[in-house]
Amino acid sequence: MGILAGKRALVTGVASDRSIAWGIAQTMRREGAELAFTYPNERLKERVVKFASACDSEIVLPCDVSTDESIDALFEELSQHWEHFDILVHSIAFAPKEALEGDFLENISRESFNIAHDISSYSLSALAKGARPMMRGRNGAIVTLSYLGAERAMPNYNVMGLAKASLEANMRYLAYTLGPEGTRVNAVSAGPIRTLAAAGIGDFRRMLEKVEQTAPLRKNVTTEEVGNAATFLCSDFASGITGEVLYVDAGYNIIG
Ligand code: 0WD
């Protein structure tokens, strides 16, 4: 029996077979969770239906986190399938491409700041708010995905670094707020992984090379390794852990 046997997980952010959310979904399924998925637009629907089916799930619901109506509709529809659920996976981020390269000051704008923070950070609060009545009192867990650029100034990551700093603070306030109702909230800070979102970041190849050459484990991490850590954080083995950032980055964050 897997460590998530008997638990139900809502997984956002599966966009391709390289998505971190797909690595998480597969490990959660392997560990016995029952899954539901969201897709952000009609273009991705069929693809997500196939991923869901590979995890024995037929619950595939639309959710574009940029509107409250879409988030409300998600939980309304989900409640027709599940009365309660235990795990929320938040694996969503977006910023306009021009703000993710080159000179931070030249390329940031009020609009790119707002979009990055709305889609990449506020969406965590918004989804947690919608999930709250269905997750209350179940020793459940929320997990989100962050990156080292939240704490350190890194080339090209720019406005997304600000949004990830906000996301990590958001995660701590949610942990503080939802802890008394038995819901834990944590983040996995993943090393760079080549995904669709990563393709938007300037000189991403260089980030991968640097980690491979200098991280203590001398390698880049896989979505399965991130999935294993997220699965642990959402399992009862992590029942004493909330408000934490867990690094899954081959140790890169510890080096000077
Ligand atoms: O190196 C990396 N890939 C790292 C990613 C290192 C550390 C952290 N992360 C984070 C990302 O910032 C993000 O929070 O992991 C999370 C997942 O990103 P990913 O797996 O790297 O990227 P991807 O497969 O593109 O999934 C991100 C998804 C979107 O994909 P697309 O490619 O369609 O933008 O976020 C979702 C969407 O599925 N998304 C939305 N979902 C609902 N509403 C929205 C939206 N408005 N916008 C994006």
From TrEMBL:
Keywords: Fatty acid biosynthesis, Fatty acid metabolism, Lipid biosynthesis, Lipid metabolism, NAD, Oxidoreductase. The active site is at Y147 (proton acceptor), Y157 (proton acceptor). It comes from the Bacteria. It catalyses: a 2,3-saturated acyl-[ACP] + NAD(+) = a (2E)-enoyl-[ACP] + NADH + H(+). It is an enzyme of class 1 (oxidoreductase). Pathway: Lipid metabolism; fatty acid biosynthesis. NAD(+) binds at G13, S19, I20, D64, V65, I92, K164, I193, R194, T195, L196, A197. Its EC number is 1.3.1.9. Substrate binds at A95. One of its GO terms (molecular function) is enoyl-[acyl-carrier-protein] reductase (NADH) activity. InterPro entries: Enoyl-ACP_Rdtase_NADH (IPR014358), NAD(P)-bd_dom_sf (IPR036291), SDR_fam (IPR002347). It holds the Pfam family adh_short_C2. GO terms for biological process: fatty acid biosynthetic process. Belongs to the short-chain dehydrogenases/reductases (SDR) family. FabI subfamily. This is Enoyl-[acyl-carrier-protein] reductase [NADH].
